[in-house]
Amino acid sequence: MYKNKFASYFNFSKKERIGTFVILVLILLFTCLPFFYPLFIKEKKYDQTAFVKEIATLNEMQADSNNKKYNNNQYQQTGYQNYYADKPEKINRPIKVEYFYFDPNTLNVPGWIKLGIKEKTAISIQKYVSKGGKFYKAEDINKIWGLSDDDKVKLIPFVQIDESRFTKKQADKMYAASNYEKPVFVKPLIDINSADTSAFIALPGIGSKLAQRIISFRDKLGGFYSINQIGETFGLPDSTFQKIKPRLSLSNFAVRQLNINTASSEEMKAHPYIRYAIANAVFQYRGQHGKFNSVYELKKIMLITDDVYAKMLPYVKID
Fold first, then answer.
1. Of 4, 85, 149, 193, which has the most beta carbons under 10 Å away?
2. Does domain 258-317 have CATH number 2.40.50?
3. Which long-range CB contacts under 8 A does 142-151 form with residues at least 24 apart?
4. Residues 6+ positions from 180 with CB-CB distance below 8 Å
5. Where are the domains of the chain?
């Protein structure tokens, strides 16, 4: 009984025998497969010449890298001066020279530089003045060390010495000890209808902003008809205006006029003496009553007082 039972484990059907055979074949095949690799895969041959070339290229790259590091270190050691040595235009940029009237006793270093004077010379002049040195006449700038003859000739016509800064004793002592005749200081007048910003900047207390405001105000008005109009410039202190007033002149009285019969409301609003409210009133009055027969009819508009009319009168006309 037990014998038959044990023998039954070794009895295989036909399908089982075939499956067992196939498994054994596959095991054998996969076991031997590594030995057949060289037959299917070709080994890449070693190219010694290419290797030598690659080594030479790497050596050249390393040499270039070392040269760049050396040059960078040399640049850092020698400083920025070497870098700019080939670009002198970036160091010695020409300074725009601008000539204006000046008092050498009060002009600061930037002012001298603006006149084309070297900074070193300008600092020397400033030290001379700070230690009590004085320029009593225009020709005294000939004594300035560092000024070229060309600079002296160009600057002397623009020198304006303010003698009010000197005591009578100082001035008398100076001219008594010299053979010079005491000069008469004549301040040039500025025509307010033709002067540019540089002319206004030359006035005491007037900077670039105020000069630009004066010209902008003049352009919007259409020209000045009175020197007192300068005092209406926005931001101009009355004390400054009173100081510069003696230096102002008015030789050209021609101003730009608006034709109140044809001017648009926008054109009238742009005028400083008319502005929004009066421009609308004039425009509406013209629409209701027709064209103006005379400029005097503007006084019929309630917003136009006698003072406003007096200010507007030079700037309006009818055709």
1. 193
2. no
3. 145/121, 146/117, 146/118, 146/120, 146/121, 147/117, 147/121, 151/116, 151/117
4. 137, 139
5. 50-88, 109-176, 190-249, 258-317
